[in-house]
Write a structure and sequence with these properties.
- The structure is a homodimer.
- Chain A has about 725 residues and is mainly beta.
- Chain A has 8 helices and 34 strands.
- Helix content of chain A is about 10%, strand content about 35%.
- Chain A has a 19-stranded antiparallel β-sheet that branches. A 4-stranded antiparallel β-sheet of chain A has the order 1-2-3-4, covered by helices on one side.
- The N and C termini of chain A lie far apart (about 75 Å).
- Chains A and B meet through helix 4, strand 5, strand 9, strand 17 and strand 18 of A and helix 4, strand 5, strand 9, strand 17 and strand 18 of B.
- Chains A, B: Keywords: Copper, Disulfide bond, Membrane, Metal-binding, Oxidoreductase, TPQ, Transmembrane, Transmembrane helix.
Chain lengths: ~725, ~725
């Protein structure tokens, strides 16, 4: 016994040593030479992709090398007041901060360095050709366990604002926080012992940083994270191989293990077989080559242009587009051309994904805290990886890079983070045929071509595809697609007939020993609508059943549209109701069409889901912005993040729900519309090992904004304009 | 005075004579020589398009001639038990009937001649290569004011079934009914006098046949229709120029005017300016040539085949497709291939648009009755005009013709009624990237290519685009797009500031003197799901909030999936609820996946609307199939039309709602799922003069039907497989 024990300990420590050596070699350090860091995919240490996977499968299929495109952003300069900070500017911020007394202290991390957008009235007044507005950076830093918010004036080189100490939660994690958190448990002997006891080679370990949420005193005054791990032996899809029940609580600031909960020792680790989704590891005889090549072709090239790197012009639309570390994609100053006057008319000052809320529905020890806020905790934009040309976006897509700052302030480039492309899938813009009844020979139809702005954020396992789709008829469709990989739970069961009560499984048995846990997704959009100017009103156009008076009509009932203008915020806290429906308009009460209708846009909900959690449940307090599907607030530059600026471990004291409770006036004011898309997800076997995309969307649609159909005069397709193509092979 | 009066009368009668001559020349007669009638677009008298429009505008733009494609269907033969009747078979039916005693009487009209599908068990047993099942036609005829239902055996040449007299409503109108109804008022001097008094040249008159609905005794025992008219002076879009308040009640059998209601003499006819939507009449300088050519290209051609004219095979799907005079498109025997076993597995025995319900929301004299049932009254398929290649469907579309019978039994061809094409708009089938957190360099994405079956029915003014979209992941999306032209109301107002109470307008002022009246659209689908066989169950998987017990978890609540198997029909009368949501599964209780889940499909609602009319309102009684969004009934070959087989002037005594009230057992039975898509439409100025398409859809989605993601092994796009294109102009 004694000898065996010694041997065990020896093997254990040897293993730890090997693993530590392995990771230390790859540990993310702050870079020293900025000029080498211009493409994340190749240079930046934290984002270097060292493929740690040692697949034991024989790769049969060769994937062609991914096309990559490197733009040199070193000489980028800002042209528009809303342009994001350039590499030169980020370096300047870093240099200004480095001489600031706060950063003389040894340990600091910059959690956010981004443009502080100029005041809205200044931006509205600004025209191309005008002098650029003063450039300022907004910085959120952690220094010695405290959060600081600073404004750096790039013109004067001064820190002009410096606040600290009054915040509830914590800033969004840095990538460095996340990466080091996944490695930190390995410094703990108990943790390593458990891993080995579960039969896992430490070299096969993959760990994920899981935000803790806030559940009471235990989470107070410490920036915490939970880490759970998986075996990546035999598969790139380690998510399907959970080491169930093992949760490490870490202090994010000290990187020290606070507590290890180890409750799933009797739960086997699911097998690797059939979990890998990569094309390169599929057996050749299993590949389904079922479709001939198909492509969207534009022989004269796409119809959009991108001026000064960020100003997108397409058809009758024009808007400013930029990547953002937290929101992902930000659309600003969206304007559409009036076909009658030729004028570019304001539609939306700013629109972006403000927050996500993803509660899992398992209250047990290793699962209850999984109630992610993907933007405020992880950075929705930080998680948006390079898009894969021809597969994530079609052939003629333009790719836009993100330029962000690492924790030490060093700029880096996220290549191909956003794509812009024209889409035509065969849909019809408008049509009419005359039937033989009237004897006219009319067949008029117009193809529908749209412009799509896309990004895809991979927040660990899950992939969110966010599309902003602009239509020539003035409609903007905002679509969220869910794909990627489920967060699954290990179980001793390998067949449902062994399960006493399936309802208590908290999900679906997807494969032997694998449960797909039920969860929701909520994606909340900030939509600062400016319909022909900033002062707008929100109108609930209620569709009401009216009963006729006796003798009035052979009909007993009909529907009436009753317009209710929202006076204050509480009037605009909207829960959608199938049997008490409304249209929801944002109008400009001061501007009317020729026949007298106020110009407006409406938000048109698509399929959605509502959060059903108890309002007093801690995660729902933090995610209280999902208590309604629609909210309207008065414009306030400080109210942009629905879960609060400091969402990490927040207690729900600074959300859209708390702002709206102030019930401020919103009639004929500069107002912001908030819309939440929701999904309930009960996993099914088709989601294993990777999920076919599920999408939902909502629309912003002109309603009496134009005098008439704005695409009446677009021409039909004719044969002679379409391309002449050959299959590439035959060329 | 006397002389002036005489002159007026003279002018009036002269005009009438001219008009009558004009129409008589074009009056639809039954054709005599069948062989000349094979293309509706050129030969059949009723569907000949004699352009009655005499545009006074100068046509500036020349439209290229529409490509037409004529298939000769004279020698078509049936290959599959569900193939529609061929021209030869329709001629045989006509000849068999002509020797039947019933049709020796002088006046008769065939309202429906179509395949009587063989019994389902026989069809299920039938395999390609087997002898074709006996061919029978189902005929609905009106003879001397009575409705007859007959079965004609094409093998024996006998009428085997002949029923009459037990029907509530009337059969769907023939095209001849509709065409002659629009002309009949001209035989009435009062009508013509009114038209002339309103200042309309009789040659500019366009009239529409409007189903009357059923509102009580007045409609009993007479087949009635209402006719309303428009001025087409100066525009092809006469719908925008209503002669408001003038309604002619006609007896459809005698074609005689029963009553004229003329109440809108003080309402001006709206102007023609800016109403014409045809490309050819747009002024050149107004045309918006804003986009470069764009096309879906497939250099190796499309990936689908159509065997024996009706059997569509694409990717992993296979189904039978046919045009239908009433339903439009019928999809039968849809099967998807299991990627593991290679087996073609049953998904749906039959799916089609069963009925539409379109109530307008104006209870006044000229509007209250507008509560259309477009399939059962007008024939949704009969109204599906030829699709316009390159605009209604993209380049590589295949077009399928409809073969129908005219009122005298003569077959005719509706060319290009359905199109089949592959769609790729840039969407993603599935994807996953690894973030730097795990250090793996993974970017895997697969493009989403789908197969679309499309038809577009122009039920007078409105256009309904119905898409059945098949995805390789097993999902079927059923999408309805609304376009075409509004049904508008004349008004003296030309600005909203003149209107005392806009809520009483029953709609929106769209242009001077034009109100777009509020209305709803409901489209009810018949979906005979056969999940791996006919005996299936319907499961309401309810998503329920659970509160945790004190001390059980830091969480207070979570969601649980509670499965309720519907025992009888009333268990499956479903109203969707955002705050009490469910998934709705059709499962095969006898077949389980490897890990024990029952195989199934779920119906996934998209954005929808519910009918809010009073349940006792006459139109809602007839449209009671919209009282729920989902119903499930046991399979019954006689229950296919949600508003009843004889929907015209029905009283609601034979609808899906009445069948479902019988509360028959539906557990582990051959069941039919019914889903209703709904739209509330408050018109807006953008809908004038023609509406940009508005769409809504729902999905049939595999849920534990496959063992795992069925498209895991499809390959990504690579550059070398994509086409090489040139702009046509440069070739």
């Amino acid at each position: 016994m004694e000898a065996r024990y010694l041997l065990r300990v020896l093997i254990f420590f040897l293993s730890v040593a090997v693993v530590l050596f392995f990771f230390v070699v790859h540990l993310p350090y702050a870079p020293t030479n900025t000029s080498e860091l211009l493409d994340c995919a190749t240079n930046s240490p934290w984002c270097t992709s060292k493929n740690r996977l040692q697949s034991k499968q024989t790769n049969i299929l060769k994937e062609p090398p991914k096309p990559t495109r490197h733009r040199n952003h070193k000489s980028d300069t800002p042209h528009h007041p809303l342009d994001p900070l350039t590499i030169q500017e980020l370096n300047k911020v870093r240099s200004i901060l480095s001489s600031h007394e706060l950063f003389q202290l040894s340990a600091y991390a910059l959690h956010s360095v981004e443009l502080e957008e100029p005041e809205k009235p200044l931006v509205l007044k600004w025209k191309k050709g005008d002098r650029l507005l003063p450039r300022r950076a907004s910085v959120i830093a952690r220094v010695n366990g405290r959060t600081h918010v600073l404004t750096v004036d790039l013109g004067t080189g001064q820190v002009t604002v410096h606040e600290t100490g009054l915040h509830y939660g914590y800033p969004m994690m840095t990538i460095e926080d996340m990466t080091t958190a996944t490695l930190a448990p390995l410094a703990n002997a108990d943790f390593n012992r458990t891993i080995i006891q579960r039969g896992i080679d430490l070299a096969d370990l993959a760990c994920l940083p899981i935000s803790t949420g806030w559940y009471g005193k235990a989470e107070e005054n410490r920036r915490l994270i939970k880490v759970q791990c998986y075996s990546m032996e035999g598969t790139a899809n380690f998510y399907m191989r959970p080491i169930e029940g093992l949760t490490v609580l870490l202090d994010l600031d000290t990187k020290r293990v606070v507590e290890i909960s180890d409750k799933g020792r009797d739960i086997p680790i699911p097998k690797a077989a059939n979990t890998d989704y990569r094309y390169s590891v599929q057996e050749f005889n299993q590949v389904m080559n079922i479709l001939n090549p198909i492509s969207i072709e534009q022989p004269k090239g796409p119809s959009f242009t991108i001026e000064d790197q960020h100003l997108v012009k397409w058809a009758n639309w024009e808007f400013h587009l930029k990547p953002d570390a937290r929101a992902g994609v930000v659309i600003s100053r969206a304007k559409v051309r009036d076909p009658d006057t030729g004028e570019q008319r304001d539609v939306m000052y700013k629109g972006f994904t403000s927050e996500l809320f993803v509660p899992y529905m398992d209250p047990t020890d290793a699962w209850y805290f999984k109630t992610y806020m993907d933007a405020g905790e992880y950075g929705f934009g930080l998680q948006a990886m390079a898009l894969d040309p021809l597969n994530d976006c079609p052939r003629n897509a333009y790719y836009m890079d993100g330029v962000f700052a690492a924790a030490d302030g060093t700029p880096y480039v996220r290549s191909n983070m956003i794509c812009v492309f024209e889409s035509y899938g065969g849909d019809i813009g408008w049509r009419h045929s005359e039937s033989p009844i009237t004897g006219m020979d009319i067949r008029e139809a117009r193809p529908k071509v749209t412009l799509v702005i896309r990004m895809a954020a991979s927040v660990a396992n899950y992939d969110y595809i966010v599309d902003w789709e602009f239509q020539t008829d003035g409609l903007i469709r905002i679509k969220v697609g869910l794909s990627g990989i489920l967060m699954v739970k290990g179980t001793p069961y390998d067949n449902t007939d062994q399960i006493p009560n399936q309802e208590d499984l908290h999900g679906t048995l997807l494969s032997e020993n694998v449960i797909g846990v039920i969860h929701d997704h909520y994606v909340t959009f900030y939509l600062d609508m400016d319909i022909d100017g900033s002062d707008n009103s929100f109108v609930d156009v209620n569709i009401k059943r009216q009963l006729t008076s006796p003798g009035e009509s052979p009909r007993r009932s009909y529907l009436k549209a009753v317009r209710n203008v929202a006076k204050t915020e509480k009037d605009a806290q909207i829960k959608l109701k199938l049997y008490d429906p409304s249209e929801f308009h944002v109008i400009n009460p001061s501007k009317k069409t020729r026949v007298g209708n106020p110009v407006g846009y409406k938000v048109v909900p698509g399929g959605t889901a509502a959060s059903l959690l108890d309002h007093e449940d801690p995660p729902q307090k933090r995610g209280a912005f999902t208590n309604n599907q629609i909210w309207v607030t008065p414009y306030n530059q400080n109210e942009q993040w629905a879960g609060g600026l400091f969402a990490y471990q927040s207690q729900g004291e600074d959300t859209l729900a708390t702002w709206s409770e102030r019930d401020r006036p919103i009639e004929n004011k500069d107002i912001v519309l908030w819309y939440t898309l929701g999904f309930h997800h009960i996993p099914c076997q088709e989601d294993f090992p990777i999920m076919p995309t599920v999408s939902s969307s909502f629309d912003l649609k002109p309603v009496n904004f134009f005098e008439s159909n704005p695409i009446l005069r677009i021409p039909p397709n004719v044969e002679k304009d379409l391309p002449v193509c050959k299959s590439a092979a035959s060329v």
